[in-house]
Amino acid sequence: MAYVIPPPPVVALPIRDRADLFPVHRIFCVGRNYAEHAREMGHDPDCDPPFFFAKPPDALITDGTFPYPAHSQNVHHELELVVALAKGGFGLEPERALEHIFGYAVGLDMTRRDRQEEARKMGRPWDAAKAFDHSAPCSEIVLASAIGHPARGNVRLDVDGELRQDGDLAQMIWKTPEVIAYLSRLFTLAPGDLIFTGTPKGVGPVQRGDRLAGRIEGVGELQVEVV
Length: 227
Ligand code: MN
Fold this sequence. Notes:
By secondary structure, this protein is of the alpha+beta class. It has helices at about 35-40, 95, 115-120, 125-130, 145, 175-185, and strands spanning about 10-15, 20-25, 25-30, 50-55, 60, 65, 75, 80-85, 100-110, 110, 135, 140-145, 155-160, 160-170, 195, 205, 210-215, 220-225. The strands form five sheets. The protein has a six-stranded mixed sheet with strand order 4-3-15-8-9-12. Strands 6-18-17-13-14 form a five-stranded mixed sheet, with no helix packed on it. The protein has a three-stranded antiparallel sheet with strand order 10-7-16. It is globular. It binds manganese (II) ion (MN).
């Protein structure tokens, strides 16, 4: 069977110390999964729990650049732990959820904050704010079999050597097993799905020429230049 147009290429992430690639199916993202970030965005985490949105897989970028997008004057960095699933399923139990994880990565949920504020005011969807081209810079994946399942560890982003975001994985409101279990009740998860698990406080704008250096203790690093 032939296709009438070229089929989309498989989007894939490199894996540390492996020649083979991790093929990406979907990208789910958790919003407001750190209390202090929810507060800096004007929300009360006690009455406004985390939630999900998505990015298309081809929003991933792994070449160390982030092209500043059109239609925004206020693009923010959000440094996040990324979970890569080896196995899927529906209605997963949190007690078994970690068994579905292939590995972890360091990702940036880049956000057109002005488009997001506009969408919020008008009650419109977030796609233009969150799911734009190149909106998901991501590191190589490290295997869970090599590093375990990080539940604590410093999450830090520097821009041009200046500390911007500083948090700890232990501050996640929904922990990784709960994120997977909850998401699996909304969607049938599949091998290749990525989950961006939310960002700690300190989000802020980037400019062309900025050098972003993200690091998650026990997982890895992500260096990105805004171009
Ligand atoms: Mn985010």
